[in-house]
Every structure is written in structure tokens, then in C-alpha cells.
Amino acid sequence: MFSFENLRVYVTARELVKNIYLLQNTFPKEERYALGDQIRRAASSITANIAEGSGRNSPKEKIHFIEIAFGSMTEVFCELQTACDMNYIKTKQLDELRPLFTDMAKMLSGLKNSLQKKIDEEKKL
């Protein structure tokens, strides 16, 4: 088992990715390969960057990948809002996913802050 598999943020991100894939399957056919594809790629980027960052040695490198994961997460939310605006999904569906986004944002921020403290402590030495 890899270390990232035990991270709560990674488990939450996997749950979100699964939900995104299932939700994207309800898009009109003409959008499954446009907006739907972009949403899937951005969602997969969240888990991939958490995993890749955990494999890096320095806290600074880990932070870099956490920041990318955070950006991908906000991109997915924005794209889901667009899907909602276009009536590809219902507002209720987005609202049901919102807690996953909120939890993940808090966890990614907490992980980043924890790593930043390590960097700051090392500078003091």
C-alpha cells in the first residue's frame, strides 16, 4: 500500500472522481466529449496530483502538487456550475457534491499548511 492511499483527502478525492464520472454519463452525447471530458480530466488530476506529491521528497515539492490538486478541484466545481447553467445537471446534484468539495478544500489546505510549517521550522534551524 502506498502512503497516499491512507490519506483522508485522497479517499475523499477518489469518491469525488467516482461521482463525477457517474454524473458526466448523464450529459447529452454532444457534451460527453467536450465539457464532460474536461471535467473528467480535471477530476482525475486531483487524485493524481495528491498521489504524485506524496511521492516527492521535499515538503516544497509536496506543496506544489497539493496546490495543483486544489486548482483542479476548483476547476471541476466551476465546470459543474457550467453544466448546471446549461441544464446538463440539476442544481440539487451539484449541491449534493458540494460537501465533498468543501471537505477536500479544507483537507488540502490543512495538508499544505502542515508542510509549510515543516519548511518554516527547517529554516529556523
What share of residues is helical? over 70%
**Count of helical stretches:** 5
Q: What is the structural class?
A: mainly alpha
Radius of gyration: 16 Å
Summarize the biggest pleated sheet: none
N-to-C terminal Cα separation, in Å?
Answer: 33 Å
Unreliable parts? none
Shape: elongated
Average of the residue pLDDT scores? 94
Number of strands: 0
β-strand amount: under 5%
Q: H/E element string?
A: HHHHH
Summarize it.
The protein is an all-alpha fold and 125 residues long.
Q: Could you explain the architecture of this structure?
A:
- Helix 1 (8-24) runs antiparallel to helix 5, helix 3 (35-54) packs antiparallel against helix 4 and helix 4 runs antiparallel to helix 5 (91-124).
- The chain has helices at residues 8-24, 29-32, 35-54, 59-85, 91-124.
- It has 125 residues and is mainly α.
- The mean pLDDT is 94.
List keywords for this structure.
125 residues, mainly alpha, 5 helices, elongated
List the helices and strands and how they pair.
Elements: H1 8-24, H2 29-32, H3 35-54, H4 59-85, H5 91-124
Helix pairs in contact: 1-3, 1-5, 3-4, 4-5
